[in-house]
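This part of the workshop introduces the protein records we will be handling. An example says more than a description, so a record of this kind follows.
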Amino acid sequence: KKRMDRTERESTDESSDETEYVVEKVIDKRYGKNKRIEYLLKWRGYGQEENTWEPLENLDCKDLINEYESRHGAKSQTKRRRNLKSTGEEEDDDIDNNCMAMIEKKYSPELVIGMTDYGGQLAYLVKWEGSSYATLMSSKLARFECPNLLIDFYEKRASWSHLNPPPQQHGMEKED
């Protein structure tokens, strides 16, 4: 049995020229391609198998999104991380969820405070401009979002040994 998507259903619907799809419930949230927020939606009049992930910018159901966010908030991400760790699964973007939320709220990275190993990948502790928050950011996202802050971080920690004077180049010796 071929599953029809909404546009195919719309074109086969003889009773009306245009079908309006109504969101019944927001079920889940994720960061999709290009770090865009997407919500898993339950459509009114359709079964669970018809639930779809839709980008935030395509949605017109702010009340349902706000209801979902107030119900799930930060505790859903904590629970999700715990579940991922307990099953041994890895998710590349998991570490960056809090960072993406800060970026979407128009905060900018201000300072790289430190670095650590987070599940086998390099992560930076980043402080956000205009906020007292600091979050872990993956190396991949940090190279994209704040490359100059990474350079500053490493330059401050670089140590040079000046115990031996540099060798003199031939023909540049001092004459007495």
Observations:
- Confidence is low (pLDDT under 50) at residues 1-13, 74-92.
